């Protein structure tokens, strides 16, 4: 699970609990201006296929870490942290290490609204 916090013109994505171990990462900080799209997408967690570049993938349990996704068509990886697909939010990025974040959050509707209006 990831906690999303907006601080002025940056967004901090904090990986919670044991997910830090699964994902090999505890926090990501992104300028708000680098977020190009935010949407809730429960089906995205069902389409995670590709090369794991650091993290954990136990089908049906947890997917967390850095992945180069097959359908992505980019040289940049995605950061993923998902257990419950119903709470998945996709955050597309530009000018960042990751092309996108596929993350589980407590309240996907609130996160989408917060990031859609934060720029």
Written description of the protein model:
With 119 residues, the chain is mainly β. It contains two helices and nine strands, in the order ββαβββββββα. The strands form two sheets. The chain has a six-stranded mixed β-sheet. It has a three-stranded antiparallel β-sheet with strand order 1-2-3. β1 (2-7) and β2 form a beta hairpin. The protein is globular, with a radius of gyration of 13 Å. The relative contact order is 0.24. The model has no long low-confidence stretch (mean pLDDT 87).
Quick structural gist:
The chain has helices at 19-23, 108-116; strands spanning 2-7, 10-15, 27-31, 35-40, 50-58, 62-69, 78-82, 88-93, 100-104. The protein is mainly beta. The chain has a six-stranded mixed beta sheet.
Q: Helix/strand/pairing class, anyone?
A: mainly beta
- Please count the helical segments: 2
Shape: globular
SSE ordering: EEHEEEEEEEH
Low-confidence stretches: none
Number of beta-strand segments: 9
Percentage of β-strand residues: over 45%
Largest sheet, spatial ordering of strands: 4-8-9-7-6-5
Q: Termini distance?
A: 24 Å
Largest sheet, in brief, is:
6 strands, mixed
Can you lay out the helices and strands and say which pair or pack?
Elements: E1 2-7, E2 10-15, H1 19-23, E3 27-31, E4 35-40, E5 50-58, E6 62-69, E7 78-82, E8 88-93, E9 100-104, H2 108-116
Parallel strand pairs: 7-9
Antiparallel strand pairs: 1-2, 2-3, 4-8, 5-6, 6-7, 8-9
Keywords:
12% helix; 119 residues; single chain; mainly beta; six-stranded mixed β-sheet
């Amino acid at each position: 699970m990831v906690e999303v916090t907006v601080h002025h013109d940056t967004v901090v994505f904090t990986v919670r609990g044991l997910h830090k171990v699964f994902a090999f990462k505890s926090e990501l900080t992104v300028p708000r201006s680098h977020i190009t799209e935010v949407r809730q997408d429960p089906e995205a967690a069902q389409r995670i296929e590709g090369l794991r570049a650091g993290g954990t993938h136990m089908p049906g349990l947890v997917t967390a870490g850095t992945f180069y996704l097959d359908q992505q068509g980019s040289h940049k990886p995605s950061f993923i942290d998902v257990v419950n697909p119903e709470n998945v939010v996709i955050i597309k990025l530009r000018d960042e290490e990751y092309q996108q974040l596929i993350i589980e959050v407590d309240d996907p509707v609130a996160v989408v609204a917060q990031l859609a209006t934060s720029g």
